[in-house]
From TrEMBL:
Residues 1-22, 68-98 are annotated as: Disordered. The keyword Iron does not apply. It comes from the Bacteria. Binds directly to 16S ribosomal RNA. PANTHER family: 30S RIBOSOMAL PROTEIN S20, SMALL RIBOSOMAL SUBUNIT PROTEIN BS20C. InterPro entries: Ribosomal_bS20, Ribosomal_bS20_sf. It holds the Pfam family Ribosomal_S20p. It comes from candidate division LCP-89 bacterium B3_LCP. This is Small ribosomal subunit protein bS20.
Amino acid sequence: MPQHKSCKKRVKTSAISRESNRTYRSQVKTLVRQIKEAKDPESTQASLRQAISHLDRLAQKGIVHKNKAANQKSKLSKLANKMTQVSNHSRVLTDEGV
């Protein structure tokens, strides 16, 4: 247990910020899940834009390190591009009647 007044205050503020940061990180996980579960390319791209915006905001606030946010955005972009290519490929196959 902290003995100094400033240390006691620091424990309280860190607990509050930890809870707040946890909710922000949870929102990112939810947005990533939405990208993975998207059925069509339009919803995938919409979810991707929302997730990137959210990650930029978290990096700006200092909740997530800017390099980590950049890495996550890169991974999500690759995933979204792969998903849209697969869906476009399957759409071409179904249009041709194969």
